Amino acid sequence: RAKESGRGQVLFYEPVMDEKIERRRQLGAAMNGALERNEFHLLFQPIFCLTSGDIASCEALLRWDSPQFGAVAPGEFIPIAEENGLIVPIGGWVLHQACQVASGWASTATIAVNLSPVQLRTPELAVTVVSALQASGLPAKRLTLEVTETVLLDDVERSLAALTTLNQIDVCTTLDDFGTGYSSLSYLTQFPFQTLKIDRSFVMDLEHNPASIAIVQTIVELAAKLGMRTVAEGVETPAQLDQLRRTRCDAVQGYLLAKPMPANEVLALFTAACPATKSLGQGHSLPE
Ligand code: C2E
Ligand code: MG
Ligand code: MG
Ligand code: MG
Protein backbone atom coordinates (compact mmCIF):
# COMPACT_ATOMS: atom_id res chain seq x y z
CA ARG A 1 0.00 0.00 0.00
CA ALA A 2 2.80 2.37 0.98
CA LYS A 3 4.47 1.73 -2.35
CA GLU A 4 1.26 2.49 -4.21
CA SER A 5 0.58 5.74 -2.36
CA GLY A 6 4.15 6.69 -3.12
CA ARG A 7 3.29 6.52 -6.77
CA GLY A 8 -0.02 8.21 -6.00
CA GLN A 9 1.29 11.69 -6.73
CA VAL A 10 2.45 10.67 -10.13
CA LEU A 11 -0.80 8.87 -10.84
CA PHE A 12 -2.68 12.02 -9.79
CA TYR A 13 -1.85 13.87 -12.99
CA GLU A 14 -0.42 11.29 -15.32
CA PRO A 15 -3.67 9.53 -16.29
CA VAL A 16 -5.29 12.88 -17.11
CA MET A 17 -2.48 13.78 -19.48
CA ASP A 18 -2.58 10.28 -20.94
CA GLU A 19 -6.31 10.54 -21.46
CA LYS A 20 -5.98 13.80 -23.35
CA ILE A 21 -3.20 12.48 -25.56
CA GLU A 22 -5.11 9.24 -26.08
CA ARG A 23 -8.33 11.07 -27.06
CA ARG A 24 -6.38 13.24 -29.48
CA ARG A 25 -4.80 10.16 -31.01
CA GLN A 26 -8.15 8.39 -31.30
CA LEU A 27 -9.86 11.43 -32.81
CA GLY A 28 -7.02 11.75 -35.30
CA ALA A 29 -7.46 8.09 -36.27
CA ALA A 30 -11.25 8.44 -36.52
CA MET A 31 -10.77 11.45 -38.79
CA ASN A 32 -9.11 9.29 -41.44
CA GLY A 33 -11.73 8.66 -44.08
CA ALA A 34 -14.33 10.74 -42.22
CA LEU A 35 -14.69 13.05 -45.23
CA GLU A 36 -15.33 10.09 -47.56
CA ARG A 37 -17.85 8.66 -45.09
CA ASN A 38 -19.74 12.00 -45.14
CA GLU A 39 -19.29 12.62 -41.43
CA PHE A 40 -18.88 16.38 -41.92
CA HIS A 41 -21.55 18.95 -42.55
CA LEU A 42 -21.84 22.70 -42.50
CA LEU A 43 -24.09 25.03 -40.54
CA PHE A 44 -24.63 28.62 -41.62
CA GLN A 45 -24.96 31.63 -39.34
CA PRO A 46 -26.43 34.85 -40.76
CA ILE A 47 -24.62 38.17 -40.38
CA PHE A 48 -26.97 41.16 -40.46
CA CYS A 49 -26.34 44.61 -41.87
CA LEU A 50 -27.05 47.06 -39.03
CA THR A 51 -28.46 49.79 -41.25
CA SER A 52 -30.71 47.80 -43.60
CA GLY A 53 -31.38 44.85 -41.30
CA ASP A 54 -30.82 42.48 -44.23
CA ILE A 55 -28.69 39.38 -44.13
CA ALA A 56 -25.40 40.61 -45.56
CA SER A 57 -23.55 37.34 -45.26
CA CYS A 58 -23.60 33.87 -43.72
CA GLU A 59 -20.65 32.21 -42.05
CA ALA A 60 -20.11 28.53 -42.81
CA LEU A 61 -19.29 26.59 -39.64
CA LEU A 62 -17.96 23.05 -39.84
CA ARG A 63 -19.47 20.19 -37.84
CA TRP A 64 -18.20 16.64 -37.38
CA ASP A 65 -20.47 13.83 -36.27
CA SER A 66 -18.25 10.86 -35.58
CA PRO A 67 -20.02 7.48 -35.25
CA GLN A 68 -17.53 6.69 -32.51
CA PHE A 69 -17.33 10.02 -30.63
CA GLY A 70 -20.57 11.77 -31.49
CA ALA A 71 -20.50 15.49 -32.20
CA VAL A 72 -16.96 16.82 -31.83
CA ALA A 73 -16.54 20.60 -31.49
CA PRO A 74 -14.47 22.39 -34.17
CA GLY A 75 -12.39 23.88 -31.36
CA GLU A 76 -11.28 20.32 -30.59
CA PHE A 77 -11.00 18.63 -34.01
CA ILE A 78 -9.66 21.48 -36.17
CA PRO A 79 -6.33 21.73 -34.30
CA ILE A 80 -5.94 17.96 -34.76
CA ALA A 81 -6.76 18.22 -38.47
CA GLU A 82 -4.20 21.02 -38.76
CA GLU A 83 -1.59 18.83 -37.14
CA ASN A 84 -2.22 15.74 -39.28
CA GLY A 85 -2.73 17.76 -42.46
CA LEU A 86 -6.31 16.59 -43.03
CA ILE A 87 -7.44 20.23 -42.76
CA VAL A 88 -6.33 20.70 -46.38
CA PRO A 89 -8.77 18.19 -47.95
CA ILE A 90 -11.43 18.96 -45.32
CA GLY A 91 -11.02 22.71 -45.89
CA GLY A 92 -11.24 22.15 -49.65
CA TRP A 93 -14.51 20.28 -49.14
CA VAL A 94 -15.79 23.16 -46.96
CA LEU A 95 -15.00 25.65 -49.74
CA HIS A 96 -16.75 23.59 -52.41
CA GLN A 97 -19.77 22.86 -50.23
CA ALA A 98 -20.13 26.46 -48.98
CA CYS A 99 -19.94 27.96 -52.49
CA GLN A 100 -22.43 25.37 -53.76
CA VAL A 101 -24.92 26.24 -51.02
CA ALA A 102 -24.51 30.02 -51.46
CA SER A 103 -25.00 29.76 -55.22
CA GLY A 104 -28.56 28.56 -54.54
CA TRP A 105 -29.61 31.57 -52.46
CA ALA A 106 -32.09 34.05 -53.86
CA SER A 107 -29.85 36.78 -52.50
CA THR A 108 -26.58 38.52 -53.09
CA ALA A 109 -25.48 37.73 -49.53
CA THR A 110 -21.89 36.60 -49.33
CA ILE A 111 -20.65 33.34 -47.88
CA ALA A 112 -17.90 33.59 -45.26
CA VAL A 113 -15.58 30.60 -44.98
CA ASN A 114 -12.99 30.15 -42.25
CA LEU A 115 -9.50 29.43 -43.48
CA SER A 116 -6.91 27.57 -41.45
CA PRO A 117 -3.35 28.95 -41.32
CA VAL A 118 -2.29 25.63 -42.83
CA GLN A 119 -4.53 26.24 -45.86
CA LEU A 120 -3.26 29.79 -46.22
CA ARG A 121 0.29 28.49 -46.50
CA THR A 122 -0.62 25.82 -49.05
CA PRO A 123 0.45 26.71 -52.59
CA GLU A 124 -2.74 25.17 -54.04
CA LEU A 125 -5.09 27.49 -52.10
CA ALA A 126 -5.89 29.75 -55.05
CA VAL A 127 -6.53 26.75 -57.32
CA THR A 128 -8.88 25.23 -54.73
CA VAL A 129 -10.75 28.52 -54.34
CA VAL A 130 -11.11 29.04 -58.09
CA SER A 131 -12.27 25.45 -58.54
CA ALA A 132 -14.92 25.86 -55.81
CA LEU A 133 -16.15 29.04 -57.49
CA GLN A 134 -16.24 27.50 -60.95
CA ALA A 135 -17.95 24.29 -59.86
CA SER A 136 -20.70 26.25 -58.08
CA GLY A 137 -20.95 29.21 -60.44
CA LEU A 138 -20.73 31.55 -57.44
CA PRO A 139 -19.23 34.95 -58.37
CA ALA A 140 -15.88 35.47 -56.60
CA LYS A 141 -17.04 38.69 -54.96
CA ARG A 142 -19.66 36.70 -53.03
CA LEU A 143 -16.97 34.68 -51.25
CA THR A 144 -15.23 35.99 -48.14
CA LEU A 145 -12.40 34.14 -46.46
CA GLU A 146 -11.90 34.65 -42.73
CA VAL A 147 -8.46 34.35 -41.24
CA THR A 148 -7.34 35.02 -37.69
CA GLU A 149 -4.50 37.38 -37.01
CA THR A 150 -2.30 34.73 -35.39
CA VAL A 151 -2.03 33.22 -38.86
CA LEU A 152 -0.32 36.27 -40.23
CA LEU A 153 2.46 36.36 -37.68
CA ASP A 154 3.89 32.98 -38.55
CA ASP A 155 4.87 33.81 -42.08
CA VAL A 156 4.24 37.40 -43.07
CA GLU A 157 5.55 37.13 -46.63
CA ARG A 158 3.58 34.01 -47.50
CA SER A 159 0.38 35.25 -45.81
CA LEU A 160 0.59 38.56 -47.63
CA ALA A 161 1.17 36.86 -50.98
CA ALA A 162 -1.77 34.47 -50.45
CA LEU A 163 -4.15 37.25 -49.36
CA THR A 164 -3.10 39.45 -52.27
CA THR A 165 -3.72 36.63 -54.75
CA LEU A 166 -7.21 36.09 -53.29
CA ASN A 167 -8.00 39.79 -53.60
CA GLN A 168 -6.73 39.77 -57.19
CA ILE A 169 -9.27 37.11 -58.13
CA ASP A 170 -11.94 39.29 -56.45
CA VAL A 171 -12.39 37.16 -53.30
CA CYS A 172 -12.83 39.23 -50.13
CA THR A 173 -10.86 38.72 -46.95
CA THR A 174 -11.84 39.22 -43.32
CA LEU A 175 -9.58 39.53 -40.31
CA ASP A 176 -11.38 37.27 -37.80
CA ASP A 177 -11.36 37.55 -33.99
CA PHE A 178 -9.72 40.97 -34.19
CA GLY A 179 -8.32 42.25 -30.93
CA THR A 180 -7.23 38.89 -29.53
CA GLY A 181 -3.87 37.26 -29.86
CA TYR A 182 -0.97 39.39 -30.86
CA SER A 183 -2.84 42.27 -32.46
CA SER A 184 -0.64 44.75 -34.07
CA LEU A 185 -2.16 47.77 -35.71
CA SER A 186 0.48 47.59 -38.40
CA TYR A 187 -1.24 44.44 -39.73
CA LEU A 188 -4.18 46.54 -40.72
CA THR A 189 -2.14 48.57 -43.15
CA GLN A 190 0.14 45.70 -44.10
CA PHE A 191 -2.48 43.13 -45.05
CA PRO A 192 -5.32 43.58 -47.51
CA PHE A 193 -8.56 43.02 -45.58
CA GLN A 194 -11.94 44.38 -46.58
CA THR A 195 -13.58 43.49 -43.26
CA LEU A 196 -12.60 43.44 -39.61
CA LYS A 197 -14.45 41.06 -37.31
CA ILE A 198 -14.42 42.34 -33.75
CA ASP A 199 -13.84 39.51 -31.30
CA ARG A 200 -16.64 38.24 -29.10
CA SER A 201 -14.65 39.06 -25.94
CA PHE A 202 -15.15 42.82 -26.55
CA VAL A 203 -18.82 42.36 -27.43
CA MET A 204 -19.40 40.33 -24.26
CA ASP A 205 -17.92 43.13 -22.19
CA LEU A 206 -19.86 45.96 -23.85
CA GLU A 207 -22.59 46.14 -21.20
CA HIS A 208 -20.40 46.21 -18.17
CA ASN A 209 -17.06 47.61 -19.13
CA PRO A 210 -16.82 51.18 -20.45
CA ALA A 211 -13.31 50.40 -21.65
CA SER A 212 -14.78 47.85 -24.09
CA ILE A 213 -17.12 50.49 -25.49
CA ALA A 214 -14.12 52.73 -26.09
CA ILE A 215 -12.19 49.89 -27.71
CA VAL A 216 -15.03 48.89 -30.02
CA GLN A 217 -15.63 52.53 -30.94
CA THR A 218 -11.97 52.98 -31.75
CA ILE A 219 -11.83 49.79 -33.84
CA VAL A 220 -14.90 50.86 -35.83
CA GLU A 221 -13.53 54.36 -36.46
CA LEU A 222 -10.10 53.09 -37.39
CA ALA A 223 -11.56 50.49 -39.76
CA ALA A 224 -13.72 53.15 -41.42
CA LYS A 225 -10.71 55.41 -41.90
CA LEU A 226 -8.83 52.54 -43.49
CA GLY A 227 -11.78 51.74 -45.74
CA MET A 228 -12.73 48.50 -44.00
CA ARG A 229 -16.11 47.27 -42.87
CA THR A 230 -16.70 46.00 -39.33
CA VAL A 231 -18.63 42.99 -38.07
CA ALA A 232 -19.21 42.31 -34.37
CA GLU A 233 -19.37 38.60 -33.47
CA GLY A 234 -21.09 36.92 -30.52
CA VAL A 235 -23.94 39.37 -29.99
CA GLU A 236 -26.13 37.78 -27.31
CA THR A 237 -28.14 40.60 -25.70
CA PRO A 238 -30.30 43.54 -26.84
CA ALA A 239 -28.06 45.89 -24.82
CA GLN A 240 -25.01 44.75 -26.78
CA LEU A 241 -26.89 45.26 -30.03
CA ASP A 242 -27.94 48.77 -28.97
CA GLN A 243 -24.39 49.68 -28.12
CA LEU A 244 -23.13 48.36 -31.47
CA ARG A 245 -25.76 50.45 -33.25
CA ARG A 246 -24.58 53.55 -31.39
CA THR A 247 -21.01 52.64 -32.30
CA ARG A 248 -22.03 52.43 -35.97
CA CYS A 249 -20.62 49.00 -36.49
CA ASP A 250 -21.57 47.81 -40.02
CA ALA A 251 -22.84 44.32 -39.25
CA VAL A 252 -23.63 41.96 -36.39
CA GLN A 253 -23.61 38.21 -35.79
CA GLY A 254 -24.69 36.28 -32.74
CA TYR A 255 -27.16 34.01 -30.99
CA LEU A 256 -29.47 36.98 -30.28
CA LEU A 257 -30.12 37.35 -34.00
CA ALA A 258 -29.67 33.86 -35.40
CA LYS A 259 -27.90 30.66 -34.46
CA PRO A 260 -25.89 28.55 -36.89
CA MET A 261 -28.48 26.60 -38.93
CA PRO A 262 -28.62 23.91 -41.61
CA ALA A 263 -28.45 24.89 -45.29
CA ASN A 264 -32.17 24.34 -45.95
CA GLU A 265 -33.16 26.75 -43.19
CA VAL A 266 -30.96 29.54 -44.56
CA LEU A 267 -32.33 28.86 -48.02
CA ALA A 268 -35.84 29.28 -46.62
CA LEU A 269 -34.85 32.57 -44.97
CA PHE A 270 -33.82 33.99 -48.33
CA THR A 271 -36.79 32.57 -50.19
CA ALA A 272 -39.25 33.93 -47.61
CA ALA A 273 -37.73 37.40 -47.88
CA CYS A 274 -39.02 38.03 -51.40
CA PRO A 275 -38.02 41.36 -52.99
CA ALA A 276 -41.49 42.90 -52.57
CA THR A 277 -41.69 42.42 -48.82
CA LYS A 278 -38.04 43.29 -48.48
CA SER A 279 -38.43 46.75 -49.94
CA LEU A 280 -41.15 47.38 -47.37
CA GLY A 281 -38.69 46.44 -44.71
CA GLN A 282 -40.69 43.34 -43.78
CA GLY A 283 -38.33 40.72 -45.10
CA HIS A 284 -36.11 38.69 -42.89
CA SER A 285 -34.43 41.39 -41.01
CA LEU A 286 -32.90 42.41 -37.77
CA PRO A 287 -35.18 43.00 -34.77
CA GLU A 288 -35.40 46.71 -33.95
P1 C2E B 1 -15.12 31.70 -35.47
O1 C2E B 1 -14.73 31.73 -36.89
O2 C2E B 1 -14.76 32.88 -34.65
O3 C2E B 1 -16.69 31.42 -35.48
C1 C2E B 1 -17.59 31.95 -34.54
C2 C2E B 1 -17.91 30.95 -33.45
O4 C2E B 1 -18.74 31.59 -32.48
C3 C2E B 1 -18.70 29.73 -33.92
O5 C2E B 1 -18.34 28.65 -33.09
C4 C2E B 1 -20.14 30.16 -33.64
O6 C2E B 1 -21.02 29.06 -33.52
C5 C2E B 1 -19.95 30.89 -32.35
N1 C2E B 1 -20.99 31.88 -32.07
C6 C2E B 1 -21.76 32.58 -32.93
N2 C2E B 1 -22.58 33.44 -32.29
C7 C2E B 1 -22.33 33.29 -30.97
C8 C2E B 1 -22.87 33.91 -29.79
O7 C2E B 1 -23.74 34.77 -29.81
N3 C2E B 1 -22.34 33.48 -28.61
C9 C2E B 1 -21.37 32.51 -28.53
N4 C2E B 1 -20.95 32.16 -27.32
N5 C2E B 1 -20.84 31.94 -29.62
C10 C2E B 1 -21.31 32.31 -30.83
P2 C2E B 1 -18.03 27.20 -33.67
O8 C2E B 1 -18.99 26.88 -34.78
O9 C2E B 1 -17.92 26.26 -32.52
O10 C2E B 1 -16.60 27.39 -34.32
C11 C2E B 1 -15.49 27.66 -33.53
C12 C2E B 1 -14.31 28.01 -34.36
O11 C2E B 1 -13.89 26.90 -35.17
C13 C2E B 1 -14.57 29.13 -35.37
O12 C2E B 1 -14.50 30.40 -34.73
C14 C2E B 1 -13.45 28.90 -36.37
O13 C2E B 1 -12.26 29.46 -35.90
C15 C2E B 1 -13.33 27.39 -36.35
N6 C2E B 1 -14.04 26.85 -37.53
C16 C2E B 1 -15.36 26.57 -37.71
N7 C2E B 1 -15.60 26.08 -38.95
C17 C2E B 1 -14.39 26.07 -39.58
C18 C2E B 1 -13.95 25.67 -40.90
O14 C2E B 1 -14.72 25.27 -41.78
N8 C2E B 1 -12.61 25.76 -41.15
C19 C2E B 1 -11.72 26.22 -40.22
N9 C2E B 1 -10.43 26.27 -40.55
N10 C2E B 1 -12.10 26.62 -39.01
C20 C2E B 1 -13.41 26.54 -38.68
MG1 MG C 1 -14.95 33.03 -38.41
MG1 MG D 1 -14.65 34.85 -35.24
MG1 MG E 1 -14.18 33.71 -32.50
Commentary on this structure:
Residues 24-274 form the EAL domain. The chain is an alpha/beta fold and 288 residues long. Helix content is 51%, strand content 18%. It has 13 helices and nine strands. It has an eight-stranded mixed β-barrel. Helix 1 crosses helix 2 (74-84) and helix 3 packs parallel to helix 5. The chain is globular and about 50 Å long. The chain starts with a helix and ends in a 9-residue tail after the last helix. Mean pLDDT is 89; it is low at 1-5 and 275-284. Residues 59, 114, 146, 176 line the site of one magnesium ion.
Give the topology, please.
Blueprint: H1 2-31, E1 40-49, E2 55-66, E3 70-72, H2 74-84, H3 87-103, E4 110-114, H4 117-120, H5 125-136, E5 143-148, H6 149-154, H7 156-168, E6 172-178, H8 185-190, E7 195-198, H9 200-205, H10 210-225, E8 229-232, H11 238-247, E9 251-252, H12 263-272, H13 275-279
Helix pairs in contact: 1-2, 3-5
